[in-house]
Amino acid sequence: MGEASSSVATGAGVLATVVRSGVVESVHLGHLATVGGPQVGRPGTVFLPRSSLKPVQAAAMLRAGLDLDDELLALAAASHAGLPMHREGAARILAGAWLGTGALQNTPDLPLDPDAAAAWRASGSPPEPVAQNCSGKHAAMLATCVAAGWDTASYRDPEHPLQQAIRRHVEALTGDEVRHVAVDGCGAPLFSCTVAGLARAFSTIATAEPGSPEGRVAAAIRAYPEWLGGPARPVTRILRAVPGLVAKDGAEGVFAAALPDGRALALTVLDGAARPVPAVVAAALRALGVRSAELDAAGHVPVLGHGAEVGAVRPAVPSAVDTGAA
Question: Which Pfam families match (predicted)?
Fold first, then answer.
């Protein structure tokens, strides 16, 4: 598993360069771990996986008694765009547990999708938990508590039985000891792991037996990528570009993905920028052997000058041949 770095900045490598009119304008550093392919930086670095951890959390909730299928299970693992279907889906999860949206304790916010946010404002609605991108996860957490007979009012407490069950499952799937417990942007506990551990967890989910908790999460993400993100979200575009892929994005430039045969990747961008992520993910998947025009298009991040493309974000991911991983 490798020794974990004491700082996320230690030993970081170049993930991508930003080229404008033939000139390197800026550089994004970070760490990339793969199962079956190249590495960048130090994959053993301990970090906060942010929302990329949601498929692991969803599998833990299924193991604790949650019973969701299809698009609602994808929503439980989502950082959704806040479209009407997402908000209504979160309400459906809660209604199945005889709860209303008032039980949600995630941070009030506007929808992530700009058009949905504009419509929300135009309706005169204030920021609300159900519109925030993590409402599916929080609704599923509450439904899990009801199914297991646990208190719902304290579900965000790291010592709550729900969060302890999630913590144990994070350790089981990543193979890492949880060294840090933080508060995520939505208010739920966030458990640390290594970049390599996150890749291992996604490899396990992607290869899980059909019908198992991990297999059910994988099937839901594959079948309903628009519920995991939204039509315009990069994670949804990448999922649509690579059939069979399981993937999840996270704040601060985090992303994880795995193919049905267990080849997997996880990355964190050191400066927290989301900009280079699609380009780096596409390059890492190519290094793992994936070839498709749709993936190339999803991974293309243009640099604009006066509204025209004058450059691009160029990934610096070595090929599998370069690293001897082929």
Answer: Asparaginase_II
Is 75 part of any domain? Answer: no
Classify residue 74: in a domain, yes or no. no
Q: 84-120 burial, b if ≥16 CB within 10 A, otherwise e?
A: eebbebbbebbebbebebebbbbbebbbbbeebbeeb
Q: How many other C-beta atoms are found inside a 10 Å radius of the C-beta of residue 153?
A: 11
Digit-coded pLDDT (tens) for 224-264: 999 999 999 999 999 999 999 999 999 999 999 999 999 99
| pLDDT value for 252 | 98
Q: What total of structural domains would you count in the chain?
A: 1
Radius of gyration of the chain (CA): 19
What is the extent of the structural domain holding 178? 13-65+160-323
Confidence tier at 7 by pLDDT (50, 70, 90): confident
Using alpha carbons, select from 248, 254, 249, 188 the residue that is nearest to residue 218. 248
Q: Are 280 and 288 in contact (CB under 8 A)?
A: no
Tokens standing for residue 77: 């693992």
Nearest to 283 by CA among 251, 255, 248: 255
DSSP of 121-162, one letter per residue?
Answer: HHTTPPPBGGGSTTHHHHHHHHHHHHHHT--STTTTSTTSHH
